[in-house]
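Try it yourself: sequence plus fe (iii) ion, in.
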Amino acid sequence: MTALFDSSSLPSSLEWLEGGAVLLRGFATSEAEMLIGEVERIAQAAPFRHLVTPGGYTMSVAMTNCGRVGWVSDRTGYRYDPVDPATGAPWPAIPTAFLDLAARAAAQGGFEGYNPDACLINRYLAGAKLGLHQDRDEKDAWAPIVSVSLGLPAVFLWGGKRRSGPVRRLRLENGDVAVWGGPGRFVYHGIAPLKDGQHPLTGASRINLTFRKVF
Ligand code: MD6
Ligand code: FE
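Structure, out:
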């Protein structure tokens, strides 16, 4: 039994971001090493790759997926594809431990019975970033996105429902989980360029899992 006197054994805090959006700091910290092991296993079957946007830019974030479908981008647009275009094979299944974590986190945010179809896995090295965007390629516009941060910290850019609104900067650390749905589903968000660093679990990278209910 671990000591009851250090912060790692306290329940995670719940920070309200706006209607439908909460940040659960430290929610997955005790599971982080196991989750990263699963990511490494998934990446052996479905390697990380830098997707090209419809506009012809190569993304600085490397991506892979697990689930019935995976999010992909190419010159023809964004889509959810049941097949990994890089290998021609179906994406690996979402590990049970991922589904269990996603459902527990969603419930904390007020979304019971969460059962995602897809898990997009993002890998950031120093300098990698994700511009302000809305997640709007999913048919289910109410179910939350559950986003798990692993490894190096990042600055989450968190805007409003209009692109032109003010943008908050939230530091996301290893084990932090954001839950994002209902009336908060279409908030603009992004990740500032990752700072150089070393993390004991992921080395020079940050890994992000984003679970989505697609259908
Ligand atoms: C990331 N996350 O944290 C990128 N989208 O690496 C996202 O784009 C995201 O964290 C929707 C909801 C939560 C997110
Ligand atoms: Fe997003």
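One thing you can check immediately is this: The radius of gyration is 16 Å.
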